[in-house]
Specification:
This is Orotate phosphoribosyltransferase. The protein has 205 residues and is an alpha/beta fold. The chain is 40% helix and 24% strand. Helix 7 (177-183) links the parallel strand 7 (163-172) and strand 8 (187-193). The longest helix is centred in the N-terminal third of the chain and has 16 residues, at 20-35. The relative contact order is 0.15.
Length: 205
């Protein structure tokens, strides 16, 4: 028997019924309860931090994934032909967005960008459906710090012949990612910022 997450009982269907404004608030609470921790951490960028956000605690949560899919689909530019992200953090996000897009009669394929080329077969960096040349692809990320992961994904996608102009993140740590994307000619937006999470975390304590 599978135990239900205590903070989100199975009968709570907010991820299905909430409007987008309420949905963002529910998602914020989920990040505070499940993903945000304070302490002494070393990030993937090598930086030391007094807090850590494990985005996968939310992106792999059933209601979290549905909420993310609904919110991000609403943010996608009208000409979006696919969503993509660097494995592993972006994998559940692009999947959730693609599934929700189908339910909203706007089917958008998902692509997964490998960190290294596959060691067999096609030796490809990108997994997913083949798209037309110059197809418009939006890069998705869970947590942005310096911005390097999403930028790497964007570069791989451009090398494959796709058009990449937008990056959307679930959380912006406000540590240089937005500036990096701007310097690379990428438009950037985030669903939440670290300031949102830390303020709400204090309120919930």
């Amino acid at each position: 028997m599978i135990n239900q997450t205590a903070s989100q009982p199975a009968s709570d269907n907010w991820a299905i019924t909430a409007d987008l404004t309420s949905l963002r608030q529910h998602l914020l609470d989920l990040f505070c309860r499940l993903a945000y921790r304070e302490g002494d951490f070393v990030l993937s960028s090598g930086q030391h931090s007094s807090y850590y956000i494990n985005g996968k605690e939310v992106t792999l949560h059933p209601q979290g994934a549905l909420a993310i899919g609904r919110i991000v689909v609403s943010l996608l530019p009208p000409d979006t032909q696919a969503v993509a992200g660097l494995t592993l953090g972006a994998d559940p996000i692009v999947t959730a967005v693609s599934v929700v897009s189908a339910y909203e009669n706007r089917p958008i394929p998902a692509l997964i960008v490998r960190k290294e080329a596959k060691g067999h077969g096609t030796r490809a960096y990108i997994e997913g459906p083949n798209l037309p040349e110059n197809a418009s692809v939006v890069v998705l990320e869970d947590v942005v710090t310096t911005g390097g992961s999403a930028l790497k994904a964007a570069e791989r996608l451009k090398d494959a012949g796709y058009s990449v102009n937008h990056v959307i993140s679930l959380v912006d740590r406000l540590q240089g990612g937005a500036e990096l994307y701007a310097s690379a000619g990428l438009q950037f937006q985030s669903v939440l910022t670290i300031a949102d999470i830390q303020q709400r975390f204090q309120e919930l304590e």
